[in-house]
Amino acid sequence: MTTLFTDLNSYSEWRKGIPADKTVGFVPTMGALHTGHVSLMRAASAHCDVVVVSIYVNELQFNSASDFQHYPRTQNDDVDLCAAANVDVVFAPSKSDMFVEKDVRIIQPSSAADNFEGLDRPGHFAGVVTVVDRLFSVVSPTRAYFGIKDYQQVAVISDMSSQLHPDIEIVICETEREHDGLAMSSRNRFLSEAARVRAALLPTALTSAITQWKNGATQTGVLIEAARAILTQDPTINVQYISIVRAGSMDPVQTVSALDVIIAAVVIDGIRLIDNMSFPIA
Questions:
Q1: pLDDT number for residue 183
Q2: Cβ atoms within 10 Å, residue 126
Q3: pLDDT score of 64
Q4: Predicted model pTM
């Protein structure tokens, strides 16, 4: 049975009752849950004694008040989905519980936040690490589960956690995809039917670069152009960036090796989509 806590005191009392030898798996979310989130819950459930999912729409990571206001709030459906996934606790705190202080001390992220999404969304990653740091302190998990779809976010959170929460193990899980390869995301629900069809070109583009690499091309420029050629077939797709970075980092590479990662962002009908894929081990 899934228990919902909406205030910090109730959650804290419950958390104190968990024996020290029990492992607590944690899946932090902003709600609007989908199958990708469920895969994280299942991974946590497979390796932990207790699973906690948080639902908190973090105002600090939005670049505009309008985006924050329009972010989908679907708590009832989200709790039902968590219950179906056998989550033990859903923690949905208020802003006043998360940040009691009037002036919140913003944590500055590592240099992994400097480019790509960090350039397009100034202050975004500072907001992310600030709230995740607070959630880690409050939830007190053994392991925290994140999807690799948000590759840069995972890198930034991992850096923060290694400094401030070294006892928490960060577990990175594979991207869940739709039938046509599109990475599952809460943003997908905002796509029109026509835009949704065009969005499938993003994973196709990344796959094209990986295919070229398997066929012997190793130079970053060649592989990026292979991906770009797919996306520019549709002039309505605004390519924000395509890059290839060293595995486990945000450092660009010139010659691509196995496990390096191709990352990309596009805007389709005003909706920003990101994705990434690793170059496989032969």
A1: 97
A2: 18
A3: 80
A4: 0.94
CA distance 37 to 94: 21
Identify the sign of the CA torsion 63, 113, 182, 215. Answer: positive
Residue closest to 8 by CA, chosen among 135, 106, 141: 135
Q: Which two tokens stand for residue 120?
A: 């397009």
d(C-alpha 42, C-alpha 6), whole Å: 23
* Res 211: pLDDT: 98
Tell which CATH architecture fits domain 3-173: 3-Layer(aba) Sandwich (3.40)
CATH T-level fold of 186-277: Pantoate--beta-alanine Ligase; Chain: A,domain 2 (3.30.1300)
Catalytic annotation present for 37: yes
Which secondary structure element, helix H or strand E, spans residue 24, and what is its range? strand 24-29
Beta strand 261-268 with 238-245: parallel, antiparallel or unpaired?
antiparallel
Domain limits of the chain?
3-173, 186-277
Going by C-beta distance under 8 Å and a sequence separation of 6 or more, which residues neighbour residue 154?
Answer: 146, 147, 148, 170, 172
What is the number of residues in the chain? 282
* Of the candidates 32, 31, 42, the residue with the CA atom closest to the CA atom of residue 174: 42
Catalytic site residue from 37, 70, 165, 179: 37
- Residue segments in the chain with a per-residue pLDDT below the cut of 70: none
Torsion of CA 61, 110, 265, 127, to 10 degrees: 0
Residue with tokens 């690799």: 148
Strands (E), 84-237: 89-91, 143-147, 169-173
Number of H helices and E strands in the chain, helices first, is 11, 9
Render the burial of 223-239: b for 16+ CB within 10 Å, e for the rest. Answer: bbebbbebbeeeeebee
